[in-house]
Amino acid sequence: MKGKTMMLALAMVAAHVAGAAMMTTWGEKVTSDNCWREYPRPQMVRDNWTCLNGDWDYQVTNVTNTPGRPSTWAGKIRVPFAVESQLSGVGRLLEPDEFLWYTRAITCAPRPGHRILLHFEAVDFRAMVFIGHREVTEVPHESGQLPFTLDITDYVIAGDNMLTVCVWDPTEDFVNSRGKQSFTPKGCFYTRSSGIVGSVWMETVPEKHIRSYKVYTDIDKGTVRFDFDKVEGAGEVKVTTDLPKDFVCWTPENPKLYTFTATYGEDVVKGYFGMRKIEKRKDAKGVLRFFLNNKPVFLMGTLDQGWWPDGLLTPPSEEAMVFDIQTLKDCGYNMMRKHIKVEPRRYYYLCDKMGLLLIQDLPSGSGSWKDPMSAKTVARYGLQRAEMKGMMDLLFNSPAIVMWNPYNEGWSQPGEFLTHAMLDFTRNYDKTRLVNGPSGCWDWEGGELLPEGWARDKRVPTQHKPEGVCEAADTVDYHLYRGPTMFPVNSRRISFLGEFGGLGHPVAEHLWNATTKNWGYGGTEDTKTREGLERTYLGLMEKVADLAAQGLGGAVYTQTTDVEIEINGLLTYDRKVLKYNPKVLKEAHARILQRAVEAAR
Questions:
Q1: CA-CA distance, 595 to 268, in Å (whole number)?
Q2: Which of 12, 114, 225, 247 could form a disulfide with 216 if both were Cys (CB 3.0 to 4.6 A apart)?
Q3: Which residues sit opposite 142 in a β-bridge?
Q4: How far apart are CA 549 and CA 547, in angstroms?
Q5: Is 97 exposed, middle or buried (0-12, 13-18, 19+ CB in 10 A)?
Q6: Beta strands 434-435 and 401-405: pairing type?
Q7: Nearest CA to 437 among 465, 477, 410?
Q8: Strand pairing report for 126-131 and 54-62
């Protein structure tokens, strides 16, 4: 390694180390004995389970000369935190030409008529799993942020067994679930996150058991229906629920959840659901808006990237996730756009329980918005579709999620035909939610288009497709910093502001890297003081209120927290400073919601 390559590598390490001292209050309390002890799957709970989080042995080897499972180990790594993170106890950047190995003993008690299931909530990116020398993964699992389950019954013996996981993570190559990870963190791209990044756990189930379910609620008919995916044999699933005839609809203001118990032979699982309906509908004046439970609603929220200075893509604890969600509630937001990241399943439970609407992005892969038909982007499309389906299956039962967003600003968006195919698939696969138009770029569905060579500040909406020709999305989504703005109201899709704002404000002693140039959209001259920041923010909100009255359906402010050198959060990256008075923000947002409702009458 010489010259510029060496300098770049050193700069990357320096940038990572610069933020190594930043911890959240929750991260400061994390130990190997207390990390992530909650049941990982709140919507399908069984009693008999074992948490495997905590200390594992780890080793890193070169992919080209690794003869097999390591015979010696480098030390301890704390699962479920990425090897690059502080909370892993390692803090080492993993390279694409390296394997990351994990191992630990697990105690099993096989029983006749029962199966032992091993669950991984997230491993970035490719995982091969072994019990002793035998590989359990028939096909290595590939997905940076989606869970997978292995039946290890036939591989284990009574007593102790050695569990080993081999991980390979190329980060920027063909991987679709890259999100904001980067080899060279800068701007809006951040430190990469590799290895086991979600909880690992086991449970024992009867051979005849429930694999998964989907719940369909109908508030107009007052009904709830369950579709169960069962293992081993026929037979009905018996369901008991506490849903009354005079049920309460789920809303952000009153996030009422109902519980159920499902019994299939000896298998018993418990879960919950919310009675909620989301749709695109014309208001009394003929303007398309979002309707929640048959009432017009303006979606006012933040772009939320879910990054943490100590855990990177893995939150330090459940309490930390509660804090982020509650802060948004306290500031008067009713929605969050979960930006190109899939959170732990408990995160969605908290949004369901606490009452926060969600727009869920598909984690994107590499690729420039300027080149939507590159060979890599088209080649990635199969994995992209598989991850979209997997994400929808995983999160289908969350009442908080009201809209899917497959594409952001053209990243890994594969041209007109495949874009429409993805949007149309999404709309038809889940008819209970809406589909966001390509967010901020390349809207071949009849909305915004960026012809080759156009400057980004000259974007204009094209004409819609002819009547009778499918437009698969439900919104026309504009991005503008600082903004705000909107596309004209139209008869086919809701006008939506998918990103705006990004007001930068540095807080001394709470910067990821104080030696580099931190940034916010549009600079920080008028927002470098708390007074200037609040005044500028309230000015933006007054404009949003005017747009809401004109027919804008929702707006997404960037963003919930600072992330590394990006300092446009409501909160600092360590969550120790809220830059705004939450009461002032709540009043401003209430005015927006009220004006939208009044305009819809």
A1: 47
A2: 225
A3: 126
A4: 5
A5: exposed
A6: parallel
A7: 477
A8: unpaired
Residue 428: both structure tokens together? 């038809």
Q: Taking the CB of residue 345, how many other CB atoms lie within 10 A of it?
A: 20
215-267: pLDDT as tens digits: 999 999 999 999 999 997 778 999 999 999 999 999 999 999 999 999 999 99
H or E, element range at 10: helix 3-18
**Amino acid identity of 380?**
R
Extract the tokens encoding 498: 């998918």
Q: Where are the beta strands (DSSP E) in 169-266?
A: 181-182, 190-191, 195-196, 200-206, 209-218, 223-231, 238-241, 258-264
Q: What φ, ψ does residue 588 adopt, rounded to 5°?
A: -65, -40
Peptide bond just before 252 cis, omega within 30 deg: no
Q: How many residues does the chain have?
A: 601
Comparing 452 with 385, which gets the higher pLDDT? 385
Distance CA 358, CA 400 (A): 6
Which residue is associated with the tokens 């320096």? 14
Condensed to tens digits (0 to 9), the pLDDT of residues 368-386 reads: 666 666 777 888 889 999 9
Alpha helices (H) in 250-317, listed in sequence order? none
231, β-bridge pairs: 209
Q: What is the pTM of this model?
A: 0.95
Under 8 Å between Cβ of 278 and 290: yes
pLDDT, residue 2, reads 40
For the record, the structure tokens of 328 come out as 């948004």
Cα gap 555→366, rounded to integer Å: 26
Phi, psi of 143 (to 5 degrees): 175, 125
Q: How far apart are CA 284 and CA 446, in angstroms?
A: 25
Token code pair at residue 20: 């190594």
Which phi and psi angles does 357 have, rounded to 5°?
-65, 145
Beta carbons of 197 and 127 less than 8 angstroms apart: no
Euclidean distance between CA atoms 197 and 144, whole angstroms: 9
- Name beta bridge partners: 268: 263
**Residues paired with 271 in a beta bridge:** 260
HSE toward the beta carbon, residue 416, CA cutoff 13 A: 10
**Residue type for 520, please?**
G
Interatomic CA distance for residues 334 and 225, integer angstroms: 27
Element containing residue 500 per DSSP (H, E) = strand 494-501
